[in-house]
Amino acid sequence: MEQWEIQRGGGVCAGSNRQLEPGEEYFAALIDKKDSFERVDYCCEYWDEHQPEVFSFWKTQVPLPSQKKKLFVDDSVLINLFERLAEEKDQLKINFRFVLALILMRKRLLKYEDTDRRDNQEIWQMRFVRETDIHQVINPHLDDEQIQQVSQELSAILHAEL
Length: 162
Hints:
30% helix; 4 helices; 27% strand; single chain; three-stranded antiparallel sheet; disordered N terminus; alpha+beta
């Protein structure tokens, strides 16, 4: 299985090269590089002025030195990324979306409804709790090691800590 090269936020605005300060709000973003995602961070001033083109983003805050580390982004970011990946055809992104679906199921935000089989693929029919729209998720039949690898990559991308 291919591995994505994803860096964590480096504490520097990708647009202005300014150091982000503890307690400062900033935008963490994913840029679609076709066969991978690149994580970049932007200070609010740069973001507001330049509106960089990104695949997905979320607003977060540089932790204070005394602050407990935040382990993951909020649920709305996970849901947004899951929905944005719906039409992707790249196998790595299909794997990524499948693992996101598993995480959302574990968080009891996404429910499995049924399975369709077409074109030699198993497609899970899923819906968000309290919603009726069905989301189709390709099951890429990842083994435990592959799921762990994609989960680690997901964590590296979305980890809110700088």
